[in-house]
Amino acid sequence: MKIALFIPCYIDQFYPQVGIATLELLEKLGCTVHFPEGQTCCGQPMANTGCERDAIPTYEHYVKTFSGYDYVVTPSGSCAYHVRKHYDIIEQTGAVQHLRKRTLDLSEFLLDVLKVEHLDACFPAKVGLHQSCHGLRGLRLGPGSERNLNAPSALHTLLSMVEGVEIAELERADECCGFGGTFAINEPDISAKMGKDRIADHARAGVEVITAGDMSCLMHLEGLLRRQGSPIQVKHIAEILNTKA
Question: Which part of the chain is the Cysteine-rich domain (predicted)?
Answer without folding.
Answer: 3-83, 127-221
